[in-house]
Amino acid sequence: MEYIMLAMLILLLLMIVAMIIFVLWSGNRTVNQYSRSKSFINRGVDVDLGHMINEGSDFIPTDGVGTVYVSGIQSPEVKLYDRNKGIDYGPVSLESPKTFGSMSGRAEIRILYDNYISGMHFKIYLYNGMPYIMDLQSKNGTRLNGEVLKTPVAIKTNDVIQVGATYLYVTVLR
């Protein structure tokens, strides 16, 4: 009986060592989960991991998709600049998805001086370490580089987001 208990204890210790080695080995690699549940990852930090939908043969990232850096490296940030009004929105951390909208809405970041922006107009979030933009069924739509957003699209520096009469110039900061 003592040998069985000792063997189980050794097996448990080996599993713990293997998990520690995996976390150290993975370094800056990302951990993606496709689940609606919440998980406790990286020293007890509560992270909403979101979900994915499948349209045809391609996976389309939807709202709430989270990317968690196991090593704790900071998430990319985005900066949106309205050249016409001289207003800088950012830098905005993408550790969690961010919503953009009008002053009258519940959005986390409110775009000023535009009556054509919905209360919750669009969302920017991380997927596989890249920032994505998604229209939130806004009344007047969201355009990226002149194209109407129908599905989420990756954004990069020098992209232009049009919402209402506002043009926002994107800078991705790493």
Can you tell me about this structure?
The chain is mainly β and 174 residues long. The protein has one helix spanning 2-26; strands at residues 30-31, 38-41, 45-48, 52-55, 58-61, 68-69, 77-82, 87-93, 98-101, 109-110, 122-127, 130-135, 142-144, 147-148, 153-154, 160-163, 166-173. The chain has a 6-stranded antiparallel β-sheet, with no helix packed on it. A 5-stranded mixed β-sheet has the order 10-9-11-12-15, with no helix packed on it. A two-stranded antiparallel sheet has the order 1-6. Residues 28-72 have low confidence and may be disordered.
Task: Count the E strands.
Answer: 17
Widest beta sheet: strand line-up: 8-7-17-16-13-14
**What can be said about the biggest beta sheet?**
6 strands, antiparallel
The computed structural class is: mainly beta
- 3D shape: elongated
Unreliable stretches: 28-72
CATH topology of the domain at 77-173: Tumour Suppressor Smad4
Distance between the termini: 56 Å
